[in-house]
Write a structure and sequence with these properties.
The chain has 245 residues and is an alpha/beta fold. 43% of the residues lie in helices and 18% in strands. It has eleven helices and ten strands. The strands form three sheets. The protein has a five-stranded parallel sheet, sandwiched between helices. Strands 3-4-7 form a three-stranded mixed sheet. Helix 4 links the parallel strand 5 and strand 6. The N and C termini lie far apart (50 Å). Bound molecules: ligand 4HQ. Ligand 4HQ binds next to strand 5.
Length: 245
């Protein structure tokens, strides 16, 4: 899967993409990331990418021509790709969207805007889908593009070293993680829960599920309402409610 990124700040991407898991995925050729400098697709001496808004108002608007040139150049190899623009006006990104992108295995073009806005003709003629990473305002679409690349990439088989078992993943999907501990068993008087040292795997699983459900219930009621739970889960939840009041 290839990610083509269009930005006026190409340097932002190098640091992140050249580390750790993403770096290895690129090396293994499971994913490819190409960063395109929007200014390379301008035609004037000053490499202008923005201009004043028609009708007046604050801030600058990104000009359409460089985006059209950039996307035509990216698509010139004839390989089909889907164009995404990062913007707070988009559909809010979530794990389901990431999962379907990772499965569709279609190349993605990510348009990162800056300034006040992007000329509407870009949205209407070049963009297949607008995506937001959440309801807050950033200074540019670069961090959201990295968020999408990172989230989608780790779902592609071979990218994570340890493939989490599909069974475990579907069981825990949609609720928060349970608490985890590592050595030492006691540190400054702070002890690891006895059950985790017991070696009783059935008890450990039950304790973990209970912890995860408890956290989710206390912190994210919205998730508990969405996820499908087993009879055993409902039993655990009522136990927790008794205890917590
Ligand atoms: N932007 N999710 C780019 C965002 C944003 C978001 C604001 C997009 C600034 C120039 N993008 N413009 N939230 O805040 O994707």
């Amino acid at each position: 899967m290839r990610f083509d990124i269009i930005t006026i700040f190409p340097e932002i991407f190098n640091a992140y993409l050249n580390e750790s898991i993403i770096k290895r995925a690129i090396k293994k050729k499971i994913i490819e990331a190409k960063v395109h400098n929007l200014r390379d697709f301008t035609a004037d001496r000053h490499r202008t990418v923005d201009d004043y808004p028609y009708g007046g108002g604050p801030g600058m608007v990104m000009k359409p021509e460089p985006f059209f040139n950039a996307i035509e150049s990216i698509k010139a190899d004839g390989v089909k790709s889907r164009t995404i623009m990062l913007s707070p006006q988009g559909k809010v990104f979530n794990q389901d969207m990431a999962l379907s992108m990772s499965k569709e295995n279609q190349n993605l073009i990510l348009i990162c805007g800056r300034y006040e806005a992007v000329d509407e003709r870009v949205r209407e003629n070049l963009v297949d889908e607008e995506i937001s990473i959440g309801d807050y305002i950033l200074t540019g679409g670069e961090l959201p593009a990295l968020v999408i690349i990172d989230t989608v990439a780790r779902l592609i088989p071979g990218v994570l070293g340890d493939e989490r078992s599909k069974e475990e993943e579907s069981f825990t999907w949609g609720i928060l993680d349970y608490s985890q501990y590592t050595r030492p068993p006691e540190f400054r008087g702070l002890r690891v829960p006895d059950v985790l040292l017991s070696g009783n795997h059935k008890e450990i699983s039950r304790w973990r599920r209970r912890e995860a459900l408890k956290r989710t219930m206390l912190r994210r009621t919205d998730l508990i309402e969405k996820v499908s739970l087993t009879d055993e889960d409902y039993k655990l939840l009522s136990e927790i409610k008794e205890e917590e009041g």
